[in-house]
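Our consortium's second objective concerns turning raw sequence data into structural hypotheses that experimental partners can test. To show how far this objective has progressed, the report includes one record in full. It was chosen at random from the queue rather than selected for favorable results. The single chain below, 556 residues long, was entered without modification.
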Amino acid sequence: MSFFTRFRRRPADSPDAAGRRHPVAGRVITVLACLFVLFALIAPNQITTLTPAAFVRIPLEGLLCVVLVLVLPARAKRIAAVPVGVILGLLAIVKVVDIGFSAVLARPFNLVFDWPLFGAGVQFLHASVGVAGAIGAAVVAVILALAVLVLMTLSIMRLTRLVVRHNARATGAVAVLGVAWVTCAALGAQLVPGVPVAGVATGRLLQVQRSLADRKTFAKESAVDAFAGTPDAQLLTGLRGKDVLLAFVESYGRNAIESPKYAPQVDAVLDAGSAQLRAAGFGSRSAFLTSPTAGGGSWLAHSTLLSGLWINNQQRYDSLVKSHRLTLSDAFRRAGWHTAAVMPGTTGAWPEASFYGYQQVYDRWTIGYRGPRFNWGTPPDQFNLSAFQRLERAAPGHAPVMAELPLVTSHAPWAPTPSGLVDWNSVGDGSVFGPMAAAGDSPEAVWRSPGRVRTAYRKSIEYTLNALVSYVRTYGDDNLVLVFLGDHQPAPIVTGQDPNRDVPITIVAKDPKVLEKISGWGWQDGLRPGAKAPVWPMKALRDRFLTAFGTPATAR
């Protein structure tokens, strides 16, 4: 073979030629390509398991890919490298998304249900950093995803050439690792709990299978409604004439009142509030509910509580709001209450309002706020409570009202938070909060340190709880019934990877007959439930509430 022929067969600009000219650089690129592929194959999908030991795994898919390269004809090897690279690139993207979901929602990404959450994320960015910031983040995410796909394909092509050049060594390595994989799989070997050494991606396939089957499961569950045929006149008779406020406190989870990081201060607020309300003639009872979500997805918790069904994914939520299920809020409407939703975090249309039975919706633009932006652009909770009072309870002789009010000051990023409450007569249009917003910490400053994030979270919970207690003391009367609860535990940066999904719930009333109705529930006295307080699934409250304050259900 002449020099000219050899030169034509291996062009000077080919990767192999570059590797010979720069052997160190070529080896570095090969190692990086191998690490990139291994990340896609063996990296755990939870942020807490991202430890060196978790990477000591034997990926079955990787072994099968090497076998494929060894047995395919030469031309087919090059063709197969492209789809394999794209598939592994997609797997790497899903792994990164999984890690992000585990850091925020304490669970991996669901390939069937979770796509709408990206839209919700863009809306959150829009409200937090504006249109340009949201568009910029989306563009960067798309560019990075495309870059992963291209780099993964190039990495697979490079490693394919490496396997071809070292055919005999690759065959021996696959044989040894294959025996090791079978042995580890048979023994169930794990260096990190929940991360088997014999790695395989069947868990994803099973997740997809279960998710696709969930539509039928939910249809069967939702077909049973013990209160569907209850006459309107028999609904909620034990609360006639009462104003009922259902307040969801964002991210108010069990950790807030039990974790040593937060409990000393939060419990002090709750205990002081119990004493103050008791002195003003109010009683309270508390327990725990188990939320269907954690870290986010508040609408799943709201719909679970109001519908009496377990709404733990977007598909169930979409099916629910298209149905005729009786919700707790619509039961109030049917029983003669004026129903309203005070939604300070809603900036656009909310078609679900009709499903829930709300006759009036106040969103961020109609609530009357003219003050500075807090948190992710929302009014502070004291203003939201003041707006509810002004819009629904201030008129003498007003019709009994039932309202849902999500309190969002304790929503991430937990900054800035008002430094304290103002006089209720001074709340007005919210302009009074200007100096507090200017003096408060910015999200950028808070999120530089996990410790500062946790402190900001605790202070936001304290603020909202103080606002609720102060509202009852200021505006409460014999006809006010307040039900407040957490929607879910906060993100794992606050709780750690705590699988607990319990949230506190409290009912406050001045009329002793209201609390007598729930005396059989076993809930504890005061605003703070203790460690031995009852724990119910969140979906159980609708039926128990309708039974306690109305007519027992009739099975259907």
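The partners drew two points from this record. The chain has two domains: 3-200, 230-548. Residues 234 and 551 are 6 Å apart (CA to CA). Both points have been shared with the crystallography group to help prioritize constructs.
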